Here is the input.
Amino acid sequence: MKASLRARRMARNHKKLTQQPKLNLVALMDIFTILVFFLMVNNGDVEVLQSDKNVILPESISEQRPAVALTLKISAEDIVVQGRQITTVAAALALPGNTIAKLREELSYQSGRAPQLTEQQQKTGRTIIIMGNQDMPYKLLKRIMSTCAESDYRNIALAVNSTPAVAQDEIQQVAEL
Here is the structure.
């Protein structure tokens, strides 16, 4: 005997409901592909330098981002290269002369670990980023920069907090009043 249309439809629906559901991954893969491209395009907005709570950077309207390079941090107490404490600020200021011997040794060690210099780098020197506290004495900055130059780190960048140019103009106008 033939089953009625309703009975066949009910049997067909019952059969579908008892099967394991299938996951359609095509739409999910499309979403993840778009997400990956979005993250790759917007990756350039990430700050290169890790902030340090012990170092208060000066303000500037500079918009140029630093390249990846050796980082030298100068807090109120310590001088640190790539996370390794080299000496204290007081000891560096107490030394005679214009260079800091411990810093020179560390920079020589770091340059020995780095790859060979290209022709452009041989002309300009190796790159170093100095993250100095805004209250750092000029005498200390001068000694550090002299030591860096002696150790072939002549391409020196000073890290600052970037502020909008409009805010700087407003500050100047208020200061003139």
In short: DSSP finds seven helices and seven strands in the chain. The chain has a mean pLDDT of 79. The two ends are 102 Å apart (CA to CA).
